[in-house]
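Journal club prep — side note

Before the paper discussion, L.F. wants everyone to see what a predicted structure for a comparable chain looks like in token form. Sequence:
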Amino acid sequence: GKTVLVVDCDFLHPGLSGLVENIEEHGFLDLLLYGSSLKTVARPVGIDGMSVTGPGSLPVSRTIPFALKEFSKIKEYLRSKHDVVIYCSTFQTEDGKINPLASLVEGVILCCRLEEMPEGELQKRLRSMTSENVPPIELVCFCGRKEQAAPAAPHAGTGERKIEAPAV
């Protein structure tokens, strides 16, 4: 019975893994910067009460554009129209800084793929976040096995590593 809006704010790799069909259509940036209506930028996804908006008219450079003052205003507007608003983006900018939008939301669900990180990298990143103005973080990690030439033994490990993350 809740209404949910999923907003693709990943300006570097837009598309939400195919959930947003046409990333060049009017979307979040058009709502945020150009005054487009919510009705023209949000699309239903086939689940009752759930809609999605793509990133919108992307700048040529595809760097992460920020209009923090406008984001604060539009955040309140979107929250008044939906029970839950989920902003999906990269946690870090191209230059490795924490995404400025992170400090403007109520909470962060941080997802990562451990096999793509060198040993200790996740702990390093989590420690760096504690000094930033970042809301509470929930951490979700995905682990995968590397392809093997022969089938795995029946009792082979899952490929998961235990990570002790600092409290954030």
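L.F.'s comment for the group: The chain has four helices and six strands. Keep this in mind when we get to the figures.
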